């Protein structure tokens, strides 16, 4: 599988088999919320996820031997990770932080124009990372309407 390192949320969705979104991160609600901060936090986070998914098409390397494409992708990952962490709601902030830490290790390698070392890639398969990814994925599905669909095959 060529999905070596994606942003934490996109990676969680793809590992779970996502590629599509449903629902909307924005839009009015007819019922007043009893927790406006949670709604604002959720909407902001969902917006970042959607931005990350849509931006992935233009930034994911088409040629993993192209240092320029790897560098652009590393920069994209790092910037998106910063946005994800800043927008992460309190209930999943620690899980997003765990994913971002692993993703940023690989982003650093990409930014230097090379592929991540095996040790960095192995962290994506670690139980701690997968547990954090599962929590964030559940949140994205429940609060953002982003749910798994078809897993990438190449």
Question: What key phrases describe this protein's structure?
Answer:
about 150 residues; mainly alpha; 6 helices; about 60% helix; about 0% strand; disordered N terminus
In short:
The chain has six helices and no strands. The chain has 154 residues and is mainly α. The longest helix has 24 residues, at 36-59.
Describe the structure in your own words.
This protein is mainly α and 154 residues long. 62% of the residues lie in helices and 0% in strands. The protein has 6 helices and no strands. It is globular, with a radius of gyration of 15 Å. Mean pLDDT is 76; it is low at 1-5, 13-38 and 150-154.
Task: Set down the secondary structure blueprint.
Layout: H1 8-15, H2 36-59, H3 67-87, H4 93-111, H5 118-123, H6 127-144
Helix pairs in contact: 1-6, 2-3, 3-4, 4-6
In percent, how helical is the residue content?
55-70%
Total count of strands:
0
Structural class per helix/strand content?
Answer: mainly alpha
- Helix tally equals 6
The 3D shape can be described as globular
The H/E string reads: HHHHHH
Radius of gyration: 15 Å
Q: Specify the biggest β-sheet.
A: none
Beta-strand content estimate: under 5%
Amino-to-carboxy terminus distance? 5 Å
Residue stretches low in confidence (pLDDT < 50, at least 5 long) are 1-5, 13-38, 150-154
What is the average per-residue confidence, as pLDDT, rounded to a whole number? 76
């Amino acid at each position: 599988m060529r999905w070596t390192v994606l942003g934490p949320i996109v990676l969680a969705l793809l590992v779970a088999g996502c590629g599509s979104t449903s629902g909307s991160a924005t839009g009015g609600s007819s019922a007043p919320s009893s927790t406006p901060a949670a709604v604002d936090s959720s909407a902001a986070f969902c917006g970042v996820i959607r931005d990350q998914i849509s931006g992935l098409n233009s930034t994911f390397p088409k040629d993993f031997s192209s240092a320029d494409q790897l560098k652009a992708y590393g920069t994209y990952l790092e910037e998106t990770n910063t946005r994800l962490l800043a927008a992460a709601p309190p209930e999943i902030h620690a899980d997003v932080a765990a994913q971002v830490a692993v993703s940023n290790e690989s982003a650093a390698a990409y930014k230097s124009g090379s592929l991540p070392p095996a040790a960095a890639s192995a962290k994506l398969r670690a139980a701690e990372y997968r547990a954090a990814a599962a929590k964030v994925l559940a949140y994205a599905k429940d609060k953002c309407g982003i749910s798994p669909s078809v897993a990438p095959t190449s």
